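Why predict the complex rather than its parts? Because the way molecules touch one another can change local conformation, and only a joint prediction can capture that. The input here totals 617 residues.
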Amino acid sequence: MMMPGKLQGSAAGNRTSYSWLTAALIRAAVVILCVMTAVFFLIRIVPGDPAKMILGEYSTPEAIAAMHHTLGLDLPLWEQFIRFVKLLFTSGDTGNSIVSGTSTRVLIAERAPVTMLLIGMACVIAIVIALLLATVAATNKDKLADHLIRIFPAITLGMPIFWVGILFIMLLSVRLRWFPVGGVGEGWSGMLYSLTLPAVTVAFSQIPTLVRSLRAQMLEVLESDFVVTLRAARIPGRVILFKHVLRNSALPTLMLLGVNISYLIGGTLVVEQVFGIKGIGSLLFTSISNRDFPVIQGIALYCAVSVVIISLLVEILAKWLDPRTKGTR
Amino acid sequence: MKTTTIYPELQTDGPKTTLLRRILNTPSLLAGSIMFAVLILLAVFIPYLSPYDPTEQNLSAFLQPPSAEHWLGTDQLGRDLFTRLIYAARTDLTIMVLAEIIPFCTGIFLGMVAGYYGKWVDNVITLITDTFIAFPFYLIVIIVAFASGAGQRGIYITFILVGWIVFARVVRGLSASFREQEWIASARTLGLSGPRIILRHLLPNVLPQAVVVLMTDMVGLLVAIVTLGYLGIGIAPPTPDWGTMIADGQSFISTAWWLSAVPGFAVVYTGIALSLVGDGLADLWRKK
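Output of the joint prediction:
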């Protein structure tokens, strides 16, 4: 849906020293504050009473009033907001789970490692496959391989990620029995093995965008003056490709992944559901079916804040690594 | 049309080339339109084409493989898969189009306002979009759809809330770049008011690009509708929907794999059709 756009570089070009960094930090902080406010208002702007949702349509008014009190919904809005922000800043929490009574932060911390591992694996797989396909496409420009690789995005655009997962299970788990059908294995190797197929599924949704921009990037480098010079100096094509072209294309790929981190996280939540992985995604869906509002809020908040922080880090890293911006740094 | 399109790249060429000819000369647009039209025609005329009812169960004929009677076989409740597939196209495509109307309009409007006026207006709108973008798309869609109650109403509310951002971002960028160009500056020197410039001059020039984005965005929206259906917080059974069909078929992937596979291909087919139309329109408007 939301197309990967460029990071909003706030006219940092002509400013000197680290002022762009200050500006980026301030912007990220403001967005995080907005995210907190949005999470707070999320259950208040959408129609429906949270208490009614927790207790069911046919609950007594007394029970609803009691639930309002437990959730603090009987207080004036500004007081609720202060309580919410206070709890967030003192303990990084959005309240205790209505079902288990455990704090949301603890619940999320329990589930986060699997999800993070899955996202990390998906990133690695996506980069490796995208680099491979983009290299093939860029070095065979306008030949059959290039055309085939360029059709790929149009086909995958309409592929629901969960459906891709189901197809992989059908083919690779049920038919060929290469991978387990679902769940997470024991120990490190078992875990990596059982997370491979889900990671490939998540990566699959990212590869088309990555290939498209990488291919364009590589073509630009391949046609640039310095590569022409290297060719003229009789440097072998293989060396040029691996040493110069790939290196120059790596940074944009990384940045694009940073921009897309939001889609990666969202896709992972859905894919976890397909493969029965007990991560943040399954916590989200159990909380949804239990109507466990504090936990849902916590997941939304933690995901959004990580997206903001990762985008910020990628922006800083890109500025740091890009030799062209050295003067302005 | 009274509106003057001053932006040179978008000017149509001489009266010799008709619109139809230009469409016929853009193969991707033609192919995409035909693919989409076929689907629409099937969806409209399915009650006359199929002898089966999409929701009526026939437990004596469950999980049948594809045959002459049932082109794509039957599902676990003995319902004809092909019939359900096309009825699901009715549901999903109608929601897809309806749910896109309001976000398309608000997105374009906010984007133009942000891009044209700049300064604090732009800062506020950009801050709102940045905040929304921080939430993983599926996370916010799942939470809002759930909170506003599963079903079609939830889907509409969700996309009114989050769907406008793509358009706002694209249109904002375009408007900001147009603002720097002479024709807008001269319109301002002539004393035209802001709203007038936005509606009469900016809008016709940002619309083509916005429509191209709309095509890809509709694919994304369709996938989101289907995903919500799959997760059980979208269209409620027994109304046929590609997402719930995939979910229902998932229990039978070792015996009747096509139950889950086929509805997915329908989504992919629609996606290819719409992105071809989008590519074609982009070509059409780029070509002089």
